Amino acid sequence: MEAIKINHKIIREAIRIRKVEEKFLQLFSEGKLNGTVHTCVGQEFSAIAFAGQLKKKDFIFSNHRCHGHYIAFTGDTRGLLAELLGKGSGTCGGIGSSQHLCNNNFFSNGIQGGIVPVSAGYALGNKLKGNGAIGIVFIGDGTLGEGTLYETMNIISKWEIPLLIVCENNFYAQSTPQQVNLAGDIQDRARAFGIKTYKGDTWDPDVLMEKALEAIDYVRTETKPCFFQVDTFRLNAHSKGDDDRDPALVERYRQKDFLHLFETESPVYYQKYHDAINLEVDTMVDSILREGDMDIMDYYTPQSIESDNNWHPLEPINKRQVELINKFFKEIIELDDRSVFLGEDILSPYGGAFKVTKDLSDLRPARVFSTPISESAITGISNGLALNGFKPFAEIMFGDFITLAFDQIVNHASKFHHMFNKKVSCPVVIRTPMGARRGYGPTHSQTLDKFLVGIDNIKTVALNIFMDPAILYQAVYKEQHPVLVIENKTDYGKKILQHPAKNFIYEANNDAYPVIRIKPARSAATVTLVAYGGMAELVSACLEEIFQHTDLKPELIVPTLISHLPIDLVAASASLTGRLVTIEEGTPYAGIGSELVAAVMEIAEVPIKVKRIAAFPVPIPSVKSLENIVLPDKARIIAELKEFLN
Amino acid sequence: MAVIQEIKVPLLAVNDTSLTVVEMNFINGQKVKPGDNLLVFETSKTTYDLEATVEGFVEFLCDLGSDYEVNDIIVRIHDSPDEITATPIPSQKQHGQVQAGNGIEPTEMKAWEGETIFSAEAMRLMQSHGLAPTAFGGKDFVSKTDVEDLLGIGSKRKAKGSVGKETRGSKRMEVTVDATRVIVEKLSSNKRREIEYLSEVQSTGLTSTINTTVETAGIFTFINPSLQYLKNSLLPVIIYEASRLLEKYPLLNAYATEDGIAIYKDVQVGFAVDMEKGLKVLKVPNSTQLSITEVEQSIMNVSNRYLDETLSLEDLTDISFTITDLSAEGVSFFRPLVNMMNSAILGISAIDERFNRCTLSVTFDHRVTEGKLAAQFLRELKQRIESYQARNYPTLMQDISCSKCGNALKEDLGNIGFVKCITPQGTEGYLCQSCLKGF
Lengths: 646, 439
Known about the structure:
The complex is a heterodimer. Chain A is built from 25 helices and 24 strands. Chain A is of the alpha/beta class. Chain B has a six-stranded mixed sheet. Chain B has a four-stranded antiparallel sheet with strand order 1-8-6-3, with no helix packed on it. The N and C termini of chain B lie far apart (90 Å). The interface between A and B is medium-sized, with 34 and 29 residues.
């Protein structure tokens, strides 16, 4: 065996990591941990080589097996212990626990593929700031199965983003040996995207440390990405007790393990370090166990909806909606250095599929990114940028494609603020056009709004054609948390409030996301209709005929913040009219209408007759005649209203 | 920011338990001072001005044209305009407010000047009832319910005030209207009230009318000297005589209640008048104490007030017996209707010039009295009136005058006397020597 060249400080650090992990396993078996742990016993030097050699201004994104990375980067052993023990003094107040840690520039999330684009976005932010900071994202060999990793590698190579991907290859993905599921070569994957690769292992820590530093410096000085394959082996189970590996194999690696060798070769030092660290950890744990959990009020307090009840009339604007949105974007891209626009085909002269981002790349080319067809990466990178202090506007070309970004919305953007105990904010804006009636067919015409409302900490805004969209975007722009903006394909080309229905008043209240009300000029309404987005215009256009055929005088309420519906206003109106009808372009099951009706019925004090009108639950046909039946149109709305009355 | 005063709908008359707001002279938030006419009520009989008695900022809790019950708070005077909503809040009950977000919002008071849109159901109903679209001028939307409201049909109609506990017996039948043949006009609130009051007694079906003729030859000879304005009218003397007679017939000076008869303690006769200011009954107060001349004066005074529209409530209320004189219209015979809170009414027909007689009719409420009593009253009245006839008294010299030139016999200087003749009208008269011989 070679003489051990690595210095003792490093070794102590590795022992610390191992002891903490072993303490966790012990605490778990004592029932003092709520949840599970994914220990990195056997992989400690990977953490130290990379996380331990970064600068303070750099950042790390890690995965479920992040404790070693955490300790090596932050040195916050106590915080980690308290976090897993669920105490309020823990890193994230006990909210995130083992897999969801956040401390300064250290982030971990239990979604191993999804963290990659987020880290790429964060790194891109550093590049835009020009602060010389870089980032590392730790993945495993199992992560090589996730598509978003490849989307991101493509982008970081093309855009030259200073991100170092460290792949801790321990030859197992949970219970599955690598040869079962991994095709091809690991490094070849990165090379295919033109990314420089390195390789090392944890059995030669000094070599690893040297190479790691080389890679880190490369990324920092070249401002280019890098991929480092670290071969290693975890000596314990994937999480706890789920180890089906051949014990003999594991034993062989245990014998090979550096710390074991050190223990064998320098038992005195080992014991000294071992005991000191154990004492330290035990003392910390004893103290922590006496602490209390976080209070629910510090974590979450219910909010009630209180809508403004002062109304001002709406005026027509002789400009198309798309022009007004574009105008707003042009203003902020000039004024605000933090604003960044991402999306497919958004560069000039094309300016986006619907021309919403026209000319932006001419104004500030450094802030406009035309992306490959990678919805997951687009959204993830936007999330990362938002975490790093930018105000990104990500465009998903068609609302139908947002399904590809769903993980980034639900498991990342939505969660960061709360799972990291409100230490960070992710003010990302994701905008996409929904809506049909252009004959684009089943996968280019959908209204998927109902899947995008009610996600924790996310606001969902729907534009409409009755007011200047800039007003809504102003409010969106100021938000500190994620916002989804649902635009409408057919509304883009329409001018604002060009065809108000005769004998109706169009007014809006003074909420930040105004509620629009369209009511008879003098008469009292006898039915309350609620519609939003593109459907609102269609309903507004047939209000007169609705009256003529059903004998009901309609009042149409058009909310814009559809994730937080103005229940109080709708309930007040429906309490007077006695009838509530919701009309949406999406399908009815668990739709926006369902939510509205349920919420109104909870607070209404008088009986109200309710009806939901929505699209038939079948993919939207391209042929116009069928499209106009599947989706609610004037004829169907009037027919269903008449039926509802009898 | 306090309410200085709450003004309630006043009880102006026993009959009027609900009043209509017909004029509103301020808008919410305006400053008012004592003496300002805030709004005008319409009662069954007249209008009433509601004046401010304190200074402050007015808030109306009522709608123009709507009815409000006595004791409803109708106006508030605030000490500052801050809390007052821009426009009045309607009187009908809301369905119930939801906590966050009051359902009440200000609505425009200005009339709608745009097109009126009708629903299909409304059009159908209008056609079957012959309603023209112009009946709905000023409305933005007209639904079936709006048409029903106008026609006075449909399930939820707001009932007008009724008197005390008395129930209205009449059921309203749905009368069909043939659009090709008729045009329907909406009933005015005055007419509605009139129908109500007359329905009070008549709806029981227990009224009966008896008639008698009164000989009127020469009757004005002795009456006219007492009269200044209403010469040749029987009304003053009838009021004079009937008032005194009613003291003897208290049951004709009363009215039916649910389980009894309310007998007025004194006689207050009113007479009906209808001269382009609407049909009203005007009181001649305390006529039992007035002479014929004073009765006439009272008639004139109150009639002038009627014409000037300066009638007070006193002129119109607490009338225990009604007289209706259609003699000026040449009516020979009619059956008057008993007014609310009366038990009888006296109708005067025109004097038949050929026979020198006129018909008097008394309709009475059979719940209170019977035919015999009414007949007795009528006979006595007839006799009293006929006692004024010239032939019952000796012809006094001072009363003889020439039918042609009007010279009185007593002023005649010729000392020859007058010739008794038959006038061209066929009545007995006198001619002086000058008119006989010519000049």
